[in-house]
Design a protein that fits this description.
There is one protein chain. With about 90 residues, this protein is mainly α. It has one domain (about 10-94). The chain is about 60% helix and about 0% strand. It has five helices and no strands. The protein has helices spanning about 10-20, 30-40, 40-50, 65-70, 80-94. The protein is elongated, with a radius of gyration of 25 Å. The termini are far apart.
Length: about 90
């Protein structure tokens, strides 16, 4: 584990420790910070979840932008146009 020095306002630190104490948590500020920044590591979080669930997730995770970029181009009209056409056809039968 990498050691890191942070600067935190004393009042903020006091309030966080009070919240932890009221909640009965024996978590250190270091553990709390480590858990927080781990949440920002989506790929690491997904890999850890797959491991805990004993799933083979293939090790490759994609961001929403990567998923969108890899989608094939639409070949026909937009779905909204198809829905409108179906509705018009249904209305004409009624």
């Amino acid at each position: 584990m990498k050691k890191l020095t942070l600067s935190v306002r004393e009042e903020t630190l006091r309030r966080v420790r009070a919240v932890l104490s009221r909640a009965g948590l024996k978590t250190s500020i270091s553990e709390l910070f480590d858990d927080y920044i781990a949440l920002m590591d989506g790929e690491g979080l997904a890999a850890e979840l797959c491991s805990e669930l004993k799933l083979d997730c293939g090790g490759q995770f994609y961001t929403p932008d990567e998923v969108k970029a890899k989608r094939p181009a639409a070949l026909g009209p937009p779905a909204s146009e198809l829905v409108k056409e179906l509705r018009r056809a249904r209305e004409s039968r009624l």
